[in-house]
Batch of 4 targets.
Target 1
Amino acid sequence: MTSEIPPQLPLDSPAPTLSSFGTVAAASVMAECLRVQADVPPRGAIARTFGRSPLSDESRPWYLGALGELDVASRLASLGEEWTVVHSVPIGTRGSDIDHVVVGAAGVFTINTKAHNGARVWVGSSRLLVNGQATDHLRNTRNEATRTQKLLTDAAGTPVPVTGVIAIVGAKQITMRERPADVTVLDAARLTRWLKKQKPRLDQAQTAAVSALVRDAATWTSEPQHDPDVSEFDALHREVVGAERVRMLWGAALLIALLGVIVPMALHYYSRLIGG
């Protein structure tokens, strides 16, 4: 059984009401997951006993998306003080956001996290397929980087280099048929190493100025920002993990029971062959 739960998720943050801009990873995805999950009735005793997941078909994609963003956020936290990282950055007027924006001497990187657990990802110059199905990942990431570059360039009064990145979480295989010219696609496990290897494009003063712009909510939106109840998502996460462990215990018990029947039968059959 493949677990839905990546390890070491940073879910022990306090539950703020007003936004501490850019500090809560997966904020919008967690909020949407909790909104959809609010319509799901609590599990009954039988469902809990047999480990049925508390997630609905509608809330599961949001839940897995949040786990993917939290996984990438935990990796970005290791970059060091010379880097600036903000999460769930609003852009546009339709509730869209950029999963992570990273600033360093190598410039600005907009990171689009995509959780594709156990999937086969194929990357071409203009297409990205997941299990053979076309996606909008390249187009959306390109648009995020273009809009961010225009916004920061206008705010800074000087050109700001921005690179769009797709970080794939949990894929079984990533086949790079042809690298896109304007978007970098890589496994999330390679993300921080790749960032640190990029050539410097900003001097120290420019990096500091762009970092200050990126950290300022007013650069991105004039609307008030509210963070989700992280403790509520943490509780849901624990419930999902608990249900998965119950299912694993039931699976192990079934296997032991089957072995308890099959092994004696096999020994009996073998003894008859030897004795016959």
Note: Residues 1-18 have pLDDT under 50 and may be disordered.
Target 2
Amino acid sequence: MLGYRNIHGSLEDKNIIFGIDASFNENEDSFDPYLVKFTKTSRILKLTNNTMAINETDWSGQNVDQIIIYGHSLGEADYSYFQSIFDSVNLYHSSTQLVFAYSIYDSDRMEEIETTYETAVEKLMTRYGQSFSNQNHGRNLLHKLLLEGRIQIRLTSSEIE
């Protein structure tokens, strides 16, 4: 079954989600209960009263052949989403493929856009690898995915003509 989730909400459903990542607030010494309401996690939780459109998807990680991430900056503010998704499919040991798709939105900056996106994918995978208890697996995650043909960076068909 093909499923999807717009992690930033949907303009059509009038539930756009802006905020900060909750990981900044993980340390007990610096925990700020007043900032929690500004996290994306908190904002999504508030939308769980069936107002948030989520296509029927099995996010337990079973039978997920491919994850396509499109139109995403892959920034630090969304890291916890990616970590949860990658953990749920047991990315290191599974056969799940990752496709990072992007578009060229300014033909004068094509090379810059490509380089920036490639760097963001590398940073995301490196950061995710650092979360592994087996640091050897963490350090070789990107190499493993490349060798197994399970990671791609793909320019979408909406290329600048």
Note: Residues 45 and 52 are 10 Å apart (CA to CA).
Target 3
Amino acid sequence: MENKAEQQPLFKVIKPGLLTTIQDLGRTGFQKYGVVVSGAMDPFALQTANLLVGNRRDEACLEITMMGPELVVLSEATIAICGADLSPMINGKAAPMWKSIQLKKDDYVTFGAPQSGVRTYLSVSGGFDSPVVMGSKSTYQKAGIGKHVEKKDTIFGYAVNGKAGVGLMHTEIPRYRKEVELRVVKGPHMERFTKEGIDNFFNNVHLVSPQADRMGYRLKSKAIAHKNGADIWSDAIPFGGVQVPVNGQPIILMADRQTTGGYTRIATVISVDLSKVAQLVPGGKICFREVDVEEAQKLYREREQFLLQIKYFCRGDSSVKGKNGYSKRRVD
């Protein structure tokens, strides 16, 4: 969406919440220069939130973690909240999720106790006004790039009028669980692990440790043994790559992952399952299941088709089908 409105103040921050940042789909194309990608931990929730208010899929949203902010609305705006259920409220009443909502000046947006998941995304029709650094509005706190929301901040945007009341069917809304199966493709260093180590990876339950953040999720696992050490020549790290350092405890690398790494990678979480990781709480349980690249690509195409369906419905074009001819799901 092109911004056709002038910049205006959207929210006054009364409380910032635990961690509220501006994120889009990340700063791509710069890893070779040592620049971290960042971006949304749950790309599906961010893209859906944007589409429901008529934005481009890659527009920036507020990424809200665990404990949400308190915001006073300064200008009329259409928003959507997608992702973890952090008990969003407008003027003290429960607000719908996965649906576009019209806000009025002086409305009060708050969040309560987390019900499921960890991260939710608040989009606004027209987008947020935040500096674009290397093609992205995403926040990377360690380098001081982007916007970390703080108390008394004023958040600016464009507040283009959107259509309120557009949302997903109940059956299409993700359910965030504390025990998940993650589908993975084999990593590039499988030959560096013992048979017992590989069996431990695929046949045991892994616990999410308290050391789980935007950089990576450290797991507590039955040791995954190497044949000849854990070190490799450093190579590029993908979103969802599973490193196993010398202690045999895997790490799932996430949005703020380092650009390169020198530990063996046993697997990579497929793109459509990254949301499951991003929404896991410490103590959550993970099982890994191997799929081949063809299956991962098929699932990715299906996810893309679903996002296109949302886009077309939000535009009011119910006659459009995707390239593969799939029937479009209905949006309430």
Note: The two ends are 22 Å apart (CA to CA).
Target 4
Amino acid sequence: MKWEIISTPKAPAAVGPYVQGIKTGDTVYVSGQLGIDAAAGKLPPSLEEQAHCSMRNLGAILEVAGAHYDQIVKTTIFLQDMNDFGKVNEIYQSYFKNGFPARSCVQIGRLPLGGLVEVECVAVITE
């Protein structure tokens, strides 16, 4: 099976030994995206800003792979605090126009760089 590394300067570089994404066939796997502002190179202070940055980073990686939000079939959201679930949901849902993918959302002990939210996804290119 052939696969291709997906990378873009429009999303933050990996902060460890992994890649931004992998494309194999019509499937795209996007690594967890912290809420780092790609232009500034750092985490913004608020949860809301970080959630938007996480989703925009996913979108930038998907775009390079030839995919978009509505082709996402599965996401996982990692939260520093489950009390942020409602706020993140409001932001998350604004990125989908034609229904929602399957999803898991978990609270974890700690995210890299002190992040408040991280989102990963799997997309299937259907067009």
Note: Strands lie at 4-6, 21-24, 27-34, 72-79, 102-107, 117-124.
